[in-house]
Amino acid sequence: MTLNILGLDAKKTKDLATDLNSLLANFQTYYQNLRGIHWNIKGKQFFELHVKFEELYTDANVKVDEIAERVLTLGETPLHTFSDYTDHAKVPVGKNVSDDEKAVALIVESLSILLKIERDILDKSGDAGDEGTNSMMSDFITEQEKTIWMMKAWLGETTV
């Protein structure tokens, strides 16, 4: 096993960076969805949701930067073109979403997909002894689980 400058297995680190790039592409799509629903939301819940969506896209933008910087820390290059994002993203694109329930449902679906990717990375980073990536994923997961719970509660649904 070859160790990199961080003291981590070089092969596992490269694989983690690839997975983080996939997460980055999905977060970029999620971020764009949030911007779109923030701009286009209509209806009686406008004021409440407009502010909430801005809070979520601001947070997503910070996470995008953190993910890209983690990829760089692991010695790889973060994806950075729209074609990279569309080629790698599993998060659905929410085009022209202005209905409040459809917007919130899109957020729940997107976060569910992000959680699956993050849990996979969490397992792999634990196996690789990569505490930096592991800690990041753990923090993201905790926060996103809570957001899903809140969004599902707003929809009048349970998280089960």
From TrEMBL:
Gene3D superfamilies: 1.20.1260.10. Residues 20-157 form the Ferritin/DPS domain. It comes from the Bacteria. The keyword Cell cycle does not apply. The keyword DNA-binding applies. This is Starvation-inducible DNA-binding protein. Belongs to the Dps family. Signal peptide: none annotated. CDD domains: DPS (cd01043). It comes from Formosa algae. PANTHER family: GENERAL STRESS PROTEIN 20U. It holds the Pfam family Ferritin. Keywords: DNA-binding. One of its GO terms (molecular function) is DNA binding.
